[in-house]
């Protein structure tokens, strides 16, 4: 083969190689020239999907070098420093943004969260005050403000902030849960009166009437409630005194402690006691585990467990009482669905279940072990407030009970209640 032929064959290959060589730097340069938006997207993916905060920080810093006035990237970089436990670097980013007079809600939320998580509630509230002034309709800012105020024992202010969240979004689950808890402690005092009427179609000839009065006092360690009850059952009248307390153990846990005494055994138990451990769990769940004890002529022990969940305007709860007996174990189950119409004291609830529990007006029926027979119940309750300090309640419950083997009867309970908070 001659040299001309060789040159003819190799020339196209040389041309292609030369073109590829010339294009290679352009291709590499194009790959390296990622926009600030592209780097921002990569940083978010690296942080949220891979949880690699150092790498996400490097990407966000690179993006911010390209676009120094890109507020969203700067706020995200501050968040990344916060999550990576670099509060000093995060604080520098946020103070620089503050000097630039940035007023975005996301900036205030990120900055206040940094201070809240680092236990500087005073600084967090200072930031949130500015944030809510600049962004009065920011649901997230008002919610964080309610949490910080609650953590600082500013319960009245926290209640106002939580109510503001629900004005913006009535279906905010966290605000609803917080408001219900705050409702129990914002009023230092409350007095209440309750009347219950019970009618049996077969089991007993006479209707039952029960009146209860109560006084509640909120103390630094939790609520204390003193109760007095008077009832007419089986044609006889009796009285009972009760004392209940809800001491707080931590932000998550609190106790229920209860005791009662009556000299009119049969109408009421002679003694009653109860203890429960309650927990406010993440994801708006709550739980309870404890016991109740009733003494008529012998002790009756009931063990209780409950789980609850807040979801938007709803509260769901399932409770059971388990009572060991000589021959078997009795079970009582009650499911409750509550729908909040406005604040913490304004709701409609529905209940359905089986068995008798110690909180039923007819718990004295436990004495003769009729609780081991089959009982079904269904009911509803309506609660509403007037000017926030006047609370009204109307409830009704229907029971269908096998009070003797293969003999069933019906019962209707109607309850009216009024509470004055001050």
UniProtKB/TrEMBL annotation:
Residues 188-359 form the YaiO beta-barrel domain. This is YaiO family outer membrane beta-barrel protein. The lineage of its organism: Bacteria, Pseudomonadati, Bacteroidota, Flavobacteriia, Flavobacteriales. The keyword Signal applies. Residues 1-30 form the signal peptide. The gene is yaiO. Keywords: Signal. The keyword Ribosomal protein does not apply. SMART domains: TPR. SUPFAM superfamilies: TPR-like. Transmembrane segments: none annotated.
